[in-house]
Design brief:
Blueprint: H1 2-21, E1 24-27, E2 30-33, E3 41-43, E4 50-52, E5 56-57, H2 66-77, H3 79-82, E6 86-88, H4 96-107, E7 114-119, H5 126-140, E8 145-150, H6 156-168, E9 172-178, H7 185-194, E10 199-203, H8 215-222, E11 225-229, H9 240-243, H10 261-270, E12 277-278, H11 285-292, H12 302-314
Parallel strand pairs: 5-6, 6-7, 7-8, 8-9, 9-10, 10-11, 11-12
Antiparallel strand pairs: 1-2, 3-4
Helix pairs in contact: 2-4, 4-5, 7-8
Bound molecules: NADP nicotinamide-adenine-dinucleotide phosphate.
Length: 317
């Protein structure tokens, strides 16, 4: 309660300051405050901690050449200075955890990072869960992980209590679960109702809006932070960018400060009030710079979101 009143005071003061400078917008009842050149942040409901609304997805962080490794290093170096913090990885992303651990150690910006990794136990055993988390710590070169998520909901009965033990030991701060598959939606909804979760991670984009039907409203109701995976529909050739290739942005995208298709797509995701942070995969610095723009300026309001959906649904293909 005390924490909550601090939060409200902080929020009220921020809104007054923002009103004074004209830097406030409202969407669907939620007020979002931003400052020029500063990144939009959202609070983790269970703690009040603020996170920048864009993070780095790293399922393609297994470089095979020095040049590819150098490109990923440039992306992670840019965390410093840009204000980005969240890095989402997983043991199943081949070399991703090891590469991130090495690069953050080389760069020296581990303290700024909010590491979100996942626990995997193919046979759903506690021993596998412990081995997975110990190995993540070793590969990430850390003795503390900000967010531990049960990957694709596999073994939650065994793994959620285990993660909570690590929270009690202060080896992990937040507990979460992830999915990116419609067929798992009933199960994630069940867990959101029955478990105490700090975070969920789910797929959501302008081209894939199923999570908005039940999962995102439930997250808001239950006070669960939400990471969004696949905001561009994934790395495959037929992702959302393919649908608009060669097309100009509609002129009204300027009304919410979108200057690229990447910003257009991310601002749709971020303008859902239940969303805490979107984690687009980024291996190129140009994409990171572009995506930073989505965390600045205005966001679409409810009417604009509807317009974006109608626009998207009217596209050929
Ligand atoms: N169940 C799960 O737990 C689960 C499932 C799927 C994904 N995830 C997480 O979600 C993250 C995101 O998913 P994803 O990477 O598969 O798909 P995504 O974020 O939808 O798309 C990533 C693709 O978009 C490109 N891109 C990024 N910013 C761009 C921009 N501004 N303009 C044009 N292209 C841009 C990336 O290129 P470059 O890489 O070349 O920069 C990459 O090819 C993953 O990295 C992972 O961390 C979790």
């Amino acid at each position: 309660m005390l924490e909550r009143s601090h939060e409200l005071l902080d929020r009220r003061t921020a809104i007054q300051l923002a009103l004074a400078s004209g830097l406030v917008t409202s969407l669907g009842g939620a007020t979002v405050v931003f400052a020029a050149d500063a990144l939009l942040h959202r609070r983790i409901p269970s703690s009040g901690e603020r996170l920048p609304v864009i993070g780095v997805g790293t399922n393609n962080y297994s470089p095979t050449t020095p040049e590819e490794r150098a490109a990923r290093r440039v992306v992670l170096e840019r965390l410093t200075g840009s204000g980005l913090r969240v890095i989402d990885t997983a043991p199943l992303y081949r070399e991703s955890e090891r590469v991130i651990g090495e690069l953050l150690a080389e760069i020296g910006n581990r303290p700024q990072a909010f590491l979100a990794t996942k626990v995997t136990a193919p046979n759903k055993t506690r021993e596998e869960g412990i081995a997975s988390m110990e190995e993540s710590m070793r590969r990430l070169q850390t003795d503390f992980i900000e967010l531990m998520q049960v990957h694709n909901l596999i073994g939650t009965d065994v793994l959620l209590p285990l993660i909570r033990e690590w929270v009690a030991q202060k080896r992990v701060r937040y507990v979460g679960v992830t999915t990116s598959r419609d067929e798992q939606y009933p199960e994630i909804v069940r867990l959101m109702r029955s478990e105490s979760l700090d975070f969920i991670q789910v797929d959501y984009s302008l081209g894939n809006r199923g999570a908005a039907e039940q999962i995102l409203p439930l997250a808001a109701e239950r006070g669960i932070a939400v990471l969004i995976n696949l905001p561009f529909g994934g790395r495959r050739d037929g992702n959302l960018f393919a649908r608009v290739r060669g097309q100009s942005l509609p002129s009204w995208a300027a009304d919410f400060d979108a200057r690229s298709w990447g910003q257009f797509l991310l601002k749709y995701v971020l303008s859902h009030p239940a969303v805490t942070c979107a984690i687009p995969g980024m291996t190129k610095i140009a994409n990171l710079e572009d995506n930073l723009g989505a965390a600045q300026g205005r966001l679409p309001d409810t009417a604009m979101r509807q317009r974006m959906e109608e626009f998207w649904d009217s596209l050929p293909g």
